[in-house]
Amino acid sequence: MTEKSPLDEVRDPQTSSARLGQLATSHPELHVLIAAHPRAYPELLVWIEANGDPASRGVASQILLNVTDDGGAPACADRYRVDERAGCPRCT
Prior knowledge:
The structure is a single chain. By secondary structure, the chain is mainly α. The protein has one domain. It has helices at residues 6-11, 17-26, 31-36, 42-51, 54-65. The protein is globular, with a radius of gyration of 12 Å. The relative contact order is 0.18.
């Protein structure tokens, strides 16, 4: 079995929240996709908002603004897509 690339891991909706946190610290180029991942938790979004580039900060901020009362993030909308080539794990 071949090992998944970090990008493939972020695109996989089954990637764990813990793994997303690890990927966020070692792959800042994936922050936008990590923020849009269905398992991105609020603390990770806050961290990306504080440590990411302008695009990833914007995505994290937008998602944090739309977090539902039960703590879950809403379904992703096209407005969260920043890199169409990479795609958004919530939208695929």
